[in-house]
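Please, structure for the following, as tokens.
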Amino acid sequence: MIACLAIFSMLVGYNIYSTQQIQQEGTGAQQYLTQEEIENILNEESGSLSATEQNNIEESLIQNRYAFSVFIETENQEGFNTPDLLKEFLITDEVVSYVEETTGIQISPNPELAVVVDRIENTPIQRINIGTGDEAENEMIANAYYDAVEEGIVTYLQNKNVYNLEEEPALQTEIEESDIQEEFNSFSTIELAILFVVIAVVGAFIGIGIAMLRTFSKDQVTEFYGLQNKETDTVLPFYRMKNKTESEMNSAIAHSSLYPAGGKKLLLSQYDLSEHLIAELKNKENELTNQVTIANEFSETDLAKRFDEIIIIIEITKTTKTWYQNQRIQLEKANLPITIIEIN
């Protein structure tokens, strides 16, 4: 997941960086308010600003902004896409104090106006913009915010996965949002499609590898586990039998366990056998006058008894490898034919 996001971040970062190099041409020289003029207007206006004043201030602060893009992933591995809420976290007293102490600059005209967070449409990426009306101050403050986000100064982000998509804040030109979105969309539909196909294929192989590793590392016996210790061992994979009812399966297991007729047989199973299977074994034992001993451990059997064959019942994904190997170690001295029956 993190590797995928890292690749995604590099490509998106490159896309946004290249987009930011586009310069609009043909725009006339327009006069914008200075920091001092903005502060004077705000100080003089005790009430609400007029629409014209508000517009002039916003346009002036937008000029020569520095910005950087982030992708935020919550504890639930979901994207955090709430720009207004992110802004509130960025203009807390704690964060503003860090930024101002780091830069030696008081954020002008105030953090609420200077810090703008927006989201690139139809993407999980948020952009943090810094505009104070002074290009040099914008750069310094933006870099301090970049570090605050990356180093966990923003308390809310400390337990989140935060990915800065650029190496450093970049100067923003007067690019329309639609231009950025168009670039991102063309990037998404072509390059991201290829990227995610590659990631999906690699992820599938990794997933198979992890699944196999987990399978072989578990103590439970699986269908891939090698049960045949000697060439004389007989392994009967009953779990592969098709179209058998439970009654038919129990009858088949009992038949194979007692075949051939005659002789004393020891049937070992780590777990107690089902009542139906025990009933089938007893029925066939009575018919054939076989003598069958059922036990959970070889060490539990009567020392005075001698057996002609050992039957080991293995329940796939239930019987443990440890139990099976313990029985095989104990049976080494017996030197008897062993039949291993695998069941579900």
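The chain has eleven helices and ten strands. Confidence is low (pLDDT under 50) at residues 22-29, 174-180.
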